[in-house]
Each structure stands twice: as C-alpha cells, then as structure tokens.
Amino acid sequence: MNKAFSLTALAAAAALAFPVQAQVKNLKMQSTWPASLTLQDNFRMFADRVDKLTSGQVKIEAMAAGQIVPAFEILDATHKKVIDGGHGVAYYWVGKNKAATLFSATPAGPFGMDHFDFLGWLQEGGGQALYDEFYRDVLKLSVVGMPIGGSSPQALGWFKRPIKDLKDFKGLKCRQTGIVSEIYQRMGMQTVNMPGGEIVPSAQRGVIDCAEWVGGIEDLRLGLPQVWKYHYTPGMHESNSMLEVIVNTDVWKGFTAQQQEAWRAAQMETFVRWGVRWQKQNADAIDEMRTKHGTQMLRTPPAILIEFLKTWDTIAAEESAKSPFFKKVYDSQREYAAKVVPAKRFMFPPYSFAANYYFPEAKPAASAKKK
What is the pTM (predicted TM-score) of this model? Predict the structure, then answer.
C-alpha cells in the first residue's frame, strides 16, 4: 500500500472519529441601561437563550451602559466594530434621522397600535424590511436591528409638584429623550436629554424638576420614588415602545444559517418571556411605591394627552413633508394600523370592563355641596 495514501486514509478516519468543532463566536455587546434595571435583564436573558439555542457556539457578553462606550454611543460603536452589537431603543437615534422614533413604535403607538399590532406591522406589513433599509441605506450603517421587548405603556413621569393642566408644564425642566423632547418643548416644557443613570443625581442637585423614565419596576430600581412623590400615568409618548437588539452586519453575516435562526428565535422568545415577567414586576412595584415610599399615583389630565397627540401629529406632518423615507414608513404604519386597530377595538372588550367588575376602582370623594 502507498504510504502517502495510508496516511491520508488514517487522517480521514480520525476526522470522522473526532470531528473538528466549529469555532465559538464570542461577542462583546453593550446596552444603554444601568446594570440594575430589568431592561438589562432582558439583554441577559437574550444572551442566555442565544448561548443555549446555538449549543454554546455563540456567546454574548451582555455589558451594561458605559462598560466600553457611553450609553448613547452604542450605535456608532456597533457600526465601527468597537463592539459587536448593542441593546437599546431606536428613538435614541433621532439626532441622526427622526424616522428612528418610528422603529421604536413611538409616539402614540403609532396610530394606537399596541405591542402585538406593531410586531404585526414588522412581520406582516413590511416593517422589518423598512427597518433594515433604515440602518443600511438611510443611515448607511453596518447595523442590523430587531425588536426584543415591549417596555410600555409608560408613565407620563415624576414631578416635584402636582400637574393639573397644560399650564403647569410651563417652565418645568424635565428629562426627556428622542423626539418626545421636541414635542414637550412645543408644549412649553424645558427638556434635558440624559441617560437613565444620570436622572437621580441630577434631580438631587436640582438640575431637573421632573423626569420621564419608564414606570413601575424600572422607576423603582432607578430610585425615583426617593426623589419625587408625584407620579402621573399614563403617557402617550410611549404608549407602545420597543426595545431593540442591534448587531454589526459583518458579525450577522458571519453566523451560519442555523445561528441566525437561533438568534431570531431567542429574540422573539425574550420578547414574550421577559414581557410577562415584567408585568408582574410592575404590579409589585406599584404596590411598593404606594405603601413603602408614599408615592402619589395620579391620573394624567386628559387635556395633556390630547395636546400631546395634536402636537405629535403636527411634527409628523412636518417630517413627512421634509423626508420621503419618514413619510414612507409613517404611511406604511398608518395603512396597517387603519386595518388592525379598528378591528381590535371592535372585537376586544375594553380592558377596564371586566377589570372594574372584579376589582372596582375606589371612587373619588364627593366634593362638598355649594350653598
């Protein structure tokens, strides 16, 4: 037997007996969130599911805000491969293009859509293709984005004094982000953009009078009940808002087809599993705020919500006139919402109907009769 042939055959047999394992992909990814928040829990859950669904072949180090780059720099850092990907919310990027807010499902839903309506637009209404186009062709970034959780509906926010009407907004300096800052500015508020981790220190120094964050468990973990006592809900600025996971395009293309499917499966599973846990955490947090911290839970005056919607409609019309891409996305969402939102309103009983039957809300004390 030829010696070279026998060595080749031996090597082939060894390869069959001991197959070469695929190289493990170790990814460094960072969020925009402080490590203590459940929003960061969402990121960690996703990383764990990717690890398990790829049998350990894709491992994500899910780092918190600031561990590599500042919170609001994760998008550019992902594009430049300073990090492999990130976890945040698309409306943080409105400084680059205001259409970014539409991919975080804000403001106003849009058009009244809830989480599953918006997922429907992404999956069934052509929204994901527009999402891909936004990062690839409009911003010209090597980034792929996908929704990974619905962190809403969110509260109007925390205030140092009661808010009775729109006039009480005047002159207040409040932490806001994204296009919401512009909306509230037109409504008379002074706004300051800052990451979540800076809210409490800024409030303690008197730099801001109020803040919008999320509501429920996130606000409790951030320490907002120790700073302010007046908490108003709901808000229309994030009645439906989407977290996103982003990854560098070259990293994405470097995955096998099976790894890409595992990534998508982990993304959708995290969306649901984290979401149902989050609702229970919010309920517990609201109870703790009331009983332990003395938070006054108050309903947002309807006039403020209506004025918000009107102001947003004006801004959206202005942006549609200036930006063909903004208009394309906004019209696509309107067309989809025009079908599903009225249909759901017709088919679904109001949430308050059975809720009020089984858990009646306390009626406000009757005002004293005038003489």
Answer: 0.87
